[in-house]
Each structure stands twice: as structure tokens, then as C-alpha cells.
Amino acid sequence: MTLLDPNRRRLLSALAGGFGLLAIGGDVLAGLNDASRTANARRGARGRSPFFDALRDGLQATNADGLRLPHGFTSRIVARSGERVGATAYDWHAAPDGGACFAASDRGWIYASNAETPDTGGVSALRFDRHGDVVDAYRILVGTRINCSGGATPWNTWLSCEEHDGGLVWECDPFKPGQGIARPGMGSFCHEACATDPRGRAVYLTEDRGSDSDSGFYRFRPTRWHDLADGVLEIAEVVGDPRAGSARVRWHRVPNPNPGAADVACRYQVDRAYRFNRGEGMVFHGGSIWFSTTADHRLWEYHCADATLRIAYDAEARARDGREAPLRKPDNLAAGAGGAVLAAEDGDDMQIVVLTPTGEALPLLQVVGHDRSEITGPAFSPDGSRLYFSSQRGSQGVKGGGMTFEVRGPFNG
């Protein structure tokens, strides 16, 4: 079964050049807007970015949607769990989690969103026209469970990850209602997120065990690019102490990517595999794979070209140094907005925090009154002017209370 035929792939690849960042929640196409991102990063490093300056001015008072935003930004709620989406006949799913945006041929876009529920699971999609109005909503995956995060591919599919011991990665076509395809070669374990390195032709994956120091960092190298039907699954060994600076990564093949309940789990099949503290969100950005570990409040950067790993942000180390640490419990990630990485908090004070190219951590927004929830699924529209995300359990603190937001503002300033 082919998710996208070759002619459609070529069309969407051509569209990517006109729409800018495509599917920021999981990947950035090779070479796409490199000059623009470099210029934005340099401008941000010099402290002359209007976007970063707006964040430094602080967040405004809580608005009618329950959000605190910087000056010049606006919001709206585009979907609520259990309620009809706009004028469609589709009820939005419970517990919205990881998500990504995709450019459509009519200059609109699609936002795909996972459902982290143990019963229905799956993935829903919102379709927007070129004016930003919701014109359709539908399912692109059913019959799975605890679909947590995932990632977009350069060939415009959505990889939805199941977060349980026998969880799989499912490849979905976001452009129409349908059913995804299981990709067992990418392993059976507690998947969290994935991100694609288009230059190295590999998909990286995190594992969220829900307990400290018991999660692997994985890489899947498909036998044929654009085809995830088979390939090699590897797990990372970290050589050196990443807390002391940059460490090196060695990759080892996982002998049995699909262990049964009585077999050795993927993370234990290689003795030298490094244990991370709850691997969570992931994004490809600037030639690197960025990922978060929630339990120790860190963001990591794996530089693909030279296989080095560093801790890009460490809340506990900053606190020990007497520096402000606005980001704690980082989860889902996105990239864009002046060369920055965005991290959504799993609880704490319910913020999305921007990590600038110089390492400054600046709150972008805060969801107020959702104390028993978490922020999930941050992703930019193809032109970078709109940010989508969800409060997974909403102000009620239950999976059926989820809310999905859109924030507009000068992200590209």
C-alpha cells in the first residue's frame, strides 16, 4: 500500500518551496529556507529580533481564551474534545497530544493531532483553507491506543507513536480520511516522538518509560528512503559525560526490534545503551535532532553530521548557578520563529518556552487555570504565522476536556 503516489509527492515537494516550513512538528526539508533560518538566528544572536524582544517584555494579562500572550499576539480555540469542529459533523477527539502541520495544494494546511487515550486512540486532522478557516475534520488513524507524540516526514506523512510496551509507529496520510500503516521495523516499545534527518536519511525516536533513567534514544535507517517498511533499528551509546560538554554517540543495532512480552525489551538488548530520564518531544532543526527528557528538565541536541551530543538546556543546573529556569518538565518540541526551539511543558506552570539560538529561555505563552493538564502538539502553519497546540485535559483536568488553540503573531519578526 502506498500512502502518497510519486506524482503527488513531486507536487507536494514543489509546494514546499512556496510555503516555507512544512510540518515543523517533526521535520524540516533538506535545505529548505536555510538562508532565512541562518539570517534569523544571527539576528536573534545580536539581540535585534522583534519576536525575541516581544518575549523579553513579558506576557500580558490572561485573555478570554485563558492564555497569557506577548503584546501583539492573539488567540482562538479551534477545537474542543467531544464537540463538533466548526461547521463539520466531526467530534474532536479526547486527550489531544502530538501534532504537526502540512501544506495543502490549495494554499491551505492541515493540522494532524494524536489522541492519547487507552481505548480509541488514533489520529484526527483539521483542514484549514488559505484564509485559516476550518473547512473539514476527519480521522486518519483508528484502532490504536495511547497515541502520544510522533513526527512528520519529508514526504508529507505523519508518524503516530503508541506509548505502551508493545507500541508501534503508524504512518498516516494527513490529506484525507483513512487508516495508517504499522511500521514494526521501527520497534515495539513505549514510543514517544520521532524526527527525520533528511540529509542522513534516518528517523530518530524517543522512548518514554514513565520512570527515571530507563529510556533509550533510537535511530531507524530505512532500507529505501521514503519507504519505512523495513530497515535497521539502532540504539545509542553515549561515550563521555554530556554534562561536561559534548559527548560522542555510537550506534548499535537492536537485535530484536519486536520483542514479545517474554523477550528482552529493546532498551536492554544492548548493554552499552545510554539510559535517559523519560525521552519525550523531538524535532529536527538546524542539522540537529533536538529532544527533551522530562524527568530531569533537559533539552538535548544531537548533531547528526558528527554524532555528538550535548545538553542544550538544564533547568536544575541553571538553578544551581543562580540563573532563572523558566522551563521545567519539557515535553513536545517544535522549531522555527527566528531559529528558536519551542518546548511545551508537561504540567509545571503550563508554558511554552522558547530557547533562542543563544540559549536564552523565554516564555512564549501560558495556559491559565489548567493545573491538571499538559501542553501538547505545538506546530506552526506552513507560513510560520500561526502556532497550534493543545491543553490535553483542559481546565477540567480530564481527557475529555481537551482544547486545541491557535495563536497568531509576529513569529517571523
What does this structure look like?
The radius of gyration is 19 Å and the shape is globular. Residues 5-47 have low confidence and may be disordered. It has one domain (6-408): TolB, C-terminal domain (Neuraminidase, 6 Propeller), CATH 2.120.10. The chain is mainly β and 413 residues long. The protein contains 4 helices and 26 strands. The longest helix has 14 residues, at 6-19. It has helices at 6-19, 34-45, 50-56, 315-320; strands spanning 67-68, 74-80, 96-103, 109-115, 123-128, 134-141, 147-152, 158-162, 169-172, 181-182, 191-197, 202-207, 217-224, 227-239, 247-253, 279-285, 288-293, 298-303, 308-314, 330-336, 340-345, 351-355, 361-367, 375-380, 386-391, 403-408. Strand 13 (217-224) and strand 14 (227-239) form a beta hairpin. The strands form 5 sheets. It has a 9-stranded antiparallel beta sheet.
Describe the secondary structure blueprint for this structure:
Layout: H1 6-19, H2 34-45, H3 50-56, E1 67-68, E2 74-80, E3 96-103, E4 109-115, E5 123-128, E6 134-141, E7 147-152, E8 158-162, E9 169-172, E10 181-182, E11 191-197, E12 202-207, E13 217-224, E14 227-239, E15 247-253, E16 279-285, E17 288-293, E18 298-303, E19 308-314, H4 315-320, E20 330-336, E21 340-345, E22 351-355, E23 361-367, E24 375-380, E25 386-391, E26 403-408
Antiparallel strand pairs: 1-23, 2-26, 3-4, 4-5, 5-6, 7-8, 8-9, 9-10, 11-12, 12-13, 13-14, 14-15, 15-19, 16-17, 17-18, 18-19, 20-21, 21-22, 22-23, 24-25, 25-26
